[in-house]
Specification:
transcription; Rossmann fold; single chain; 2 domains; DNA binding; alpha/beta; Arc Repressor Mutant, subunit A; Response regulator transcription factor; two-component regulatory system; 9 helices; 210 residues; 5 strands
């Protein structure tokens, strides 16, 4: 598994060097860039990690780089690092999705703590999104009737009770449940329900059966 990459974007060579050394000792892969333009030109859309971004640089400033990443659909966490920390700029950065805003000079322990927090959060969200995509793909394999029976089953209804409500035989409902388990690749529908809920997926019957 590749190490998360921390991108340090700052026009001050001394800061790039010191942060690079600090982050590498903490086990991160580091890429440093002297300008926003250089960073954007070299950036790989599939990169994981975070960006430590200077606010004021010649050429593109930090907020402009942030806006360009957003335009490209890049959701890499951003920690702003600036020698000037005015409230309006901080508010703008945070509203645009920045994870944090630190003022130079920042203690090493504080910076590392922030980096670790945003990288861990990003990794968790990535894993959650992957699980969500996987579960949605399985649910899309179900027929409307199977989704209806799934919804009734996870609400605690027995096969007999479901059969009575839908006007089906109990054997038919049980066969449906076997196919549901196979398509969802689970032996426990309640467990699947909890996994789906954790990913923000609501298991509801199709509208035509409501």
């Amino acid at each position: 598994m590749n190490r998360p990459t921390v991108f340090v974007v700052d026009d001050d060579a001394a800061i790039r060097y010191s942060l690079g050394m600090l982050l590498e000792t903490e086990g991160y892969s580091v890429q440093t860039h002297k300008s926003g333009e250089d960073f954007l030109a070299a950036f790989d859309h599939g990169s994981q990690g975070c960006v430590i971004l200077d606010l004021r640089m010649p050429g593109m400033g930090g907020l402009e780089v942030q806006a360009e990443l957003t335009r490209r659909g890049v959701h890499l966490p951003i920690i702003f690092l600036s020698g000037v920390g005015d409230i309006p700029t901080t508010v703008d950065a945070m509203k645009a999705g920045a994870e944090d805003f630190l003022t130079k000079p920042t203690e090493s322990s504080v910076l590392i703590g922030k980096v670790r927090a945003v990288v861990d959060k990003a990794e968790h969200l990535k894993d959650l999104n992957q699980e969500s995509d996987e579960l949605r793909a399985r649910l899309n394999e179900l027929t409307d009737r199977e989704r209806e029976i799934l919804s009734m089953a996870i609400s605690g209804q027995s096969s007999k009770g479901i059969a009575q409500q839908l006007g089906l035989s109990q054997r038919t409902v049980e066969n449906h449940r076997l196919r549901i388990n196979k398509k969802l690749r689970t032996g426990n529908l309640l467990e699947f329900y909890h996994r789906a809920a954790r990913c923000g997926i609501e298991l509801e019957p199709p509208a035509r059966y409501n």
